[in-house]
Amino acid sequence: MWEWESACLKCSKKVTAPRDLFCSNFGSVRGPWAVCQSAWCPKCYVADPDLKFHMALPENDEGSQWKKKTDNKRFAHARAGDMLSSSFQCEICWFINLKRREPVRLSAGDQRLLGYSRRVNLDIMWSHEKSTVGNTLSALKKAKELSEELGLTPQIIELDPWPVSDDVGFQTALEMLRASQREGKNVKEYVQFDTVRKICTSYATVYENSARGGAMTACFKGDHGRTFALNNGGTDTRLFRKFIAGLERRMGRVVRQNSGIAIDVLLKVFENYEGELSQSSLTKERRREIIMAGAGFA
């Protein structure tokens, strides 16, 4: 991997591993398809501008949103060293994994799926902050230099080509992204993270009750008799967990707490109750309801 070099697919500049972004399948033969040559400058690996996804903004104590200038770049592109800190497989290879064919350049549907796959990859990358990714890259570069100082060949970092399949929940991640774009109940512009997450929870429930995931899954007991299961379903893989973490970072969570009734509104309620109680035609049942409701508000 230390010797990987190529040209960026977007800007054609020279890119080198591991600083720049290379697909884990780079230079590998996978079935009858063309050898993967996907590589980018980190800032050239950007989200599809035609696909809109919610980006959460920080809020102050009053609930007002604010952001720094650097927040415009969050979740929008890759960072130097992301190929080391993320399970990265380019969207073309993922397309082959899912469809068993290469994407057609003039097919709007194929290009749309590639855009969604890139968003999944970016969410996986952004499960780690830029500083964490940068520190990993710097540490490995330093380790390489130390080996060379000792007259040793730097350790080989093997990324290994991926199998032509999806056993890590990538299609589930695509479904969750599509679901997040629909109209929500509390927020019309998007479906909230906790609602979208129910998709992967449902898949996990079905897997745990299947023959492979339920009856045949190994279990063990802890010190206090608590039982643990070794679940290897697609939604429990490291890649999918990173996607969930990155998705939550990008979307945020909307928490709507129960708030008290404003004083002016409460006074108006009591005023209406008093007016209704003064009516001679009021039934005993209704009088009882008003007194109980008023006592509850008080």
Jot down its keywords:
single chain, 298 residues, mainly alpha, 2 domains, two-stranded antiparallel sheet, two-stranded antiparallel ribbon, 11 helices, elongated
Largest sheet: 2 strands, antiparallel
Number of helices: 11
Structural class call reads mainly alpha
User: Approximately how much helix is present in the residues?
Assistant: 40-55%
The strand order across the widest sheet is 1-2
Report the C-alpha radius of gyration, rounded.
27 Å
Instruction: Write down the secondary-structure element order.
Output: EEEEHHHHHHHHEEHHH
Structural domains: how many: 2
Rough outline: elongated
Give average pLDDT, whole number: 88
Protein architecture, described:
By secondary structure, this protein is mainly alpha-helical. It has two domains: 247 residues, no CATH class; 35 residues. It is 42% helix and 5% strand. The protein is built from eleven helices and six strands. The strands form three sheets. Strands 1-2 form a two-stranded antiparallel sheet. The protein has a two-stranded antiparallel sheet with strand order 3-4. Helix 2 packs across helix 3 and helix 3 crosses helix 5. The radius of gyration is 27 Å and the shape is elongated. The protein starts with a strand and ends with a helix. The mean pLDDT is 88.
What's the structural blueprint in terms of helices and strands?
Layout: E1 5-7, E2 14-16, E3 21-22, E4 39-40, H1 82-85, H2 91-99, H3 108-125, H4 130-149, H5 170-180, H6 193-196, H7 198-208, H8 211-215, E5 219-221, E6 227-229, H9 238-251, H10 263-277, H11 284-297
Antiparallel strand pairs: 1-2, 3-4, 5-6
